[in-house]
Write a structure and sequence with these properties.
The mean pLDDT is 91. The protein has a 4-stranded mixed beta sheet with strand order 2-1-3-4, sandwiched between helices. Helix 3 packs antiparallel against helix 4 and helix 3 runs parallel beside helix 5. By secondary structure, it is α+β, with helices and mostly antiparallel strands. The chain is built from 7 helices and 4 strands, in the order βαβαααααββα.
Length: 198
């Protein structure tokens, strides 16, 4: 039986990036179907003065462009743009969000005009709804990455570096076992290392 997975990402989050690379290996090695969805750190942290690495406005830029592209050209562009943006932002180390947007749109063959969506609030309601959908399955006190497996959601898993190949599949089997137990809520340990994109 195919496991239905919803994977919520924000292109700014390095932890979601590593988990998404793991999820790609899982897709190749296990019978899963992944729906790539947006969770907005800007929305999750809109009342937080620090708001992680960028202010609230800038933190919305990438997700607005991804949502606009998805609406105009098809849902498959959520993942395509995420891959293009994330590769530049995380292993690539590019800090300039406007450059990330411009280069990513070009890479996936989308019109440059979509970059204007970064400054538009037209898609913010949809981004809020997608973010709230993640919270509905995993709880209010979450961040990114967020995953739901067959309707059961949780924050994480968080890796550094992400498991690959057979190890990725083995870790997936463990996550699936935990998610299948209705009383499972949390498993966590202190994080001593920063993101390792190797």
């Amino acid at each position: 039986m195919t496991d239905k997975v919803e994977f919520w990402f924000d292109p700014l989050c390095p932890w979601a990036w590593m988990t998404s690379r793991w999820m790609e290996d899982v897709e190749r090695l296990r019978d899963v179907e992944v729906d790539w969805r947006i969770i907005s750190l800007g929305i999750l942290n809109e009342d937080n003065a620090d708001n992680h690495h960028h202010g609230h406005v800038e933190s919305m830029w990438l997700v607005r462009v991804v949502e606009a592209a998805s609406r105009a050209h098809g849902g498959e562009y959520r993942k395509k743009l995420y891959d293009a943006m994330g590769t530049r932002r995380h292993p690539g180390g590019v800090e300039d969000l406007e450059r990330i947007i411009t280069e990513s749109l070009e890479e996936v063959g989308l019109p440059a005009e979509l970059a204007a969506a970064k400054d538009s609030t037209e898609f913010d309601d949809a981004l809020r709804a997608s973010t709230e959908a993640a919270q509905a399955v995993a709880g209010e006190d979450i961040g990114t990455p967020c995953i739901a497996v067959n309707g059961v959601g949780f924050f994480g898993p968080v890796f550094t570096p992400a498991p690959k190949g057979d190890e990725a599949a083995r870790v997936w089997d463990g996550a699936l076992a935990l998610a299948s137990y209705p009383g499972f809520y949390e498993l966590k340990r202190g994080r001593e290392k920063g993101p390792d994109f190797s």
